[in-house]
Design a protein that fits this description.
This protein has 255 residues and is an alpha/beta fold. The chain contains 8 helices and 12 strands.
Length: 255
């Protein structure tokens, strides 16, 4: 595939396979990812995504309202029973396919990171590869989920342990590693049979959204991985919802 004259400030459209300027209308239609499909923003609350090469507004990302946060949680809740009951070996097959898709699309992923964050392409590829290492680790989930049994830990006492899915997990990630840190979170969580809601940084959300599409392409069922965009209001709504069972967070106090 022919590269653009300058990487920074361009984005690779995975719809057309063409490089387009980041200020192009083709490149500025962002969305949420709920129940396995793109969901447009409602209510008119948006954040601005800047082109780090020029400082200009490149696109606008919709901020979820309370209804869309609830929709994402209900989607994850509905998907949990079947996904958690799926044998680990079948979940591992999804992770193997997901790993292969990331490898096949790593140049596109790096271009998305570069176009919104400003990393060089080599740096963006490198950080994506570090995230990919966690996906590789998650492929071994059938072994990692094995329980333990120990005889005679005390007089006439045996002990055993089992590993079970937790439920709905939420990940809140920062702007500095839009591929690596989400990949540190959701692959292991979903491989363990949980469902996941990712709230990426509103400064560079395109890469996490693309990862969600690749996860579905790998065979991830609808509702297992959801991505909603927003600011502190969305974060607070996720943190305080009693249906959320676990939270992973990387960021600062204002978030």
């Amino acid at each position: 595939m022919k590269s653009p004259p300058l990487f920074l400030g361009w984005v690779l459209s995975y719809k057309t396979g063409l490089w387009t300027g980041i200020g192009d209308p083709m490149a500025n239609k962002l969305h949420h990812w709920i129940n396995g499909q793109k969901v447009d923003g409602v209510g008119g609350n948006y954040g601005e995504v800047f082109n780090p090469a020029t400082g200009e507004i490149a696109s606008r990302v919709p901020f979820a309202d309370a209804k869309q946060v609830d929709e994402a949680i209900r989607s994850a809740q509905a998907a949990f029973p079947a996904w958690s009951a799926t044998p680990p070996i079948q979940r591992a097959r999804v992770m193997f396919r997901f790993k292969a898709l990331i490898e096949d699309n790593i140049d596109e992923i790096a271009a998305l990171v570069s176009s919104e964050h400003g990393k060089t392409l080599d740096d963006a590829r490198g950080s994506t590869t570090r995230g990919l290492e966690v996906v590789e680790f998650a492929c071994g989930i059938p072994h990692l989920l094995k329980g333990e049994f120990t005889e005679q830990v005390g007089t006439n006492v045996d002990s055993y342990s089992v590993r079970q899915s937790v439920g709905i997990c939420v990940g809140i990630t920062p702007f500095n590693f839009p591929a690596m840190i989400p990949l540190w979170m959701f692959p292991l969580a979903v491989a363990c049979g949980n469902t996941f809601i990712l709230k990426p940084s509103e400064k560079d959300p395109s890469c996490p959204l693309r990862l969600a599409e690749l996860f579905k392409e790998a065979g991830g069922p609808d509702g297992v991985l959801n991505v909603i965009n927003g600011d502190k209001t969305v974060v607070d709504a996720l943190l305080t919802d009693p249906r959320v069972d676990a939270v992973s967070f990387v960021g600062s106090t204002p978030i």
